[in-house]
């Protein structure tokens, strides 16, 4: 499957935004309709999500692991999800650049593995669902940042 790419702009400068995006516990708290699990750390966090897609019932446990980063310019994560009859692994890289008074993020997400029922779903369906999840995730980060400032 081809990678997903895009950009998102935030009002915070890279030096203020990078520590937030480097924190897996902060990130899982930004996932819409997600329920963070106890024990989240800066490097790893887990939450439970009920996906709103007709082809995926039940709930998913989503684990975010921070793989590496260079402050305040780049980050790399892996997101693994596991549900009844489904698994996935996605690797995401971010590049943070100063933009006016804030930050422009260029992101790239690559599906590393789809298992179970997801393996059989048409790629167009997966791509459409993934685009919605990505946009909702960025909107969740923006909302959480606005609430904490």
List the helices and strands and how they pair.
Layout (H helix, E strand, L loop, with lengths): L3 E7 L3 H8 L2 H6 L4 E3 L7 E6 L10 E11 L3 E10 L2 E14 L2 E15 H4 L2 H26 L1
Antiparallel strand pairs: 1-7, 2-3, 3-4, 4-5, 5-6, 6-7
Which short descriptors sum up this protein?
single chain, 149 residues, alpha+beta, Alpha-D-Glucose-1,6-Bisphosphate, Chain A, domain 4, seven-stranded antiparallel beta sheet, 7 strands, globular
Structural overview:
The chain is an alpha+beta fold and 149 residues long. It has one domain (4-148): START domain (Alpha-D-Glucose-1,6-Bisphosphate, Chain A, domain 4, 2-Layer Sandwich), CATH 3.30.530.20. 30% of the residues lie in helices and 44% in strands. The protein is built from four helices and seven strands. The chain has a seven-stranded antiparallel beta sheet. The termini are far apart. The model has no long low-confidence stretch (mean pLDDT 90).
The number of domains: 1
Distance between the termini: 38 Å
Calculate the mean pLDDT score and round it. Answer: 90
Count of alpha/pi helices: 4
CATH superfamily: START domain
Shape: globular
Q: How much beta, percentage-wise?
A: 35-45%
Secondary-structure element series: EHHEEEEEEHH
Radius of gyration: 15 Å
Q: What is the strand tally?
A: 7
Instruction: Give start-end ranges of low-pLDDT stretches.
Output: none
Percent helix: 25-40%
The strands making up the biggest β-sheet line up spatially as 1-7-6-5-4-3-2
> Major sheet: size, sense and barrel closure?
7 strands, antiparallel
- What's the CATH topology label? Alpha-D-Glucose-1,6-Bisphosphate, Chain A, domain 4
The structure class reads alpha+beta
The appropriate CATH architecture is 2-Layer Sandwich
Can you tell me the CATH class? Alpha Beta
């Amino acid at each position: 499957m081809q990678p997903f790419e895009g950009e998102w702009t935030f009002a915070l400068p890279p030096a203020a935004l990078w520590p937030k995006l480097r924190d897996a516990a902060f990130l899982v708290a930004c996932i819409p309709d997600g329920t963070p699990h106890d024990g989240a750390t800066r490097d790893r966090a887990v939450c439970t999500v009920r996906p709103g897609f007709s082809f995926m019932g039940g709930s998913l446990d989503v684990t975010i692991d921070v793989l590496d980063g260079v402050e305040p310019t780049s980050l790399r994560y892996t997101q693994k999800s596991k549900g009844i009859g489904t698994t996935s692994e996605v690797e995401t890289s971010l590049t943070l650049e100063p933009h006016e008074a804030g930050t422009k993020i260029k992101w790239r997400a690559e599906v590393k593995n789809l298992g179970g029922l997801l393996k059989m779903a048409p790629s167009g369906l997966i791509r459409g669902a993934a685009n919605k999840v990505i946009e909702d995730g960025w909107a969740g980060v923006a909302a959480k940042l606005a609430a904490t400032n």
